[in-house]
User: Which sequence fits this backbone?
């Protein structure tokens, strides 16, 4: 199967509308010598929204409601000070708990700050049957007369949801059989 990646900025992205847990999603990305998406700075939000909108157009994905997608983010729990999110890409910044008011943090999902977000203020750090919300998902929240917004949520790694793969344009592409749009 040819996998279509969207060529945006310095990276190439693919949004998969197939539900898998985070480790299975990562294994699928690795088949293409790609990996799950890692957030690097606030400009990545535009690339994510663009990839989701392109995927919606090509695959008739319904983004009239919130769309969740796995990223490569891993949660390290602790107090607000000890809490951190790290990414598979070592160049990506570590994110602190939103209560730390670090301006480098991307926005965690919050009903008060993300219009249309239908959920609890993130991160929730809920424990269910001895499983903690240790993986980070991106939530695409569509908005009327707007491209929408992306925010972070912590989720159970065993939850099945869509996912976003990426690779750098600087990667060795000689063994890849991708079509770029």
Assistant:
């Amino acid at each position: 199967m040819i996998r279509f990646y969207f060529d945006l900025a310095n990276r190439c992205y693919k949004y998969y509308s197939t539900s898998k847990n985070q480790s299975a999603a990562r294994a699928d990305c690795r088949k293409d010598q790609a990996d799950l998406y890692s957030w690097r700075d606030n400009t990545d939000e535009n690339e994510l929204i663009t990839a989701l909108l392109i995927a919606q157009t090509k695959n008739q994905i319904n983004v009239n409601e919130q769309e969740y997608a796995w990223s490569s983010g891993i949660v390290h729990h602790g107090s607000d000070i000890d809490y951190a999110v790290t990414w598979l890409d070592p160049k990506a910044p570590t994110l602190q708990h939103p209560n730390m008011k670090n301006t480098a943090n991307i926005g965690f999902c919050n009903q008060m700050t993300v219009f249309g977000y239908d959920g609890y203020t993130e991160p929730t750090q809920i424990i269910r049957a001895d499983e903690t919300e240790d993986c980070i998902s991106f939530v695409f929240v569509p908005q009327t007369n707007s491209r929408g917004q992306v925010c972070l949520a912590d989720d159970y790694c065993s939850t099945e949801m869509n996912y976003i793969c990426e690779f750098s344009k600087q990667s060795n592409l000689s063994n890849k059989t991708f079509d770029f749009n």
Observations:
- The chain has two helices and twelve strands.
- Residues 172-181 have pLDDT under 50 and may be disordered.
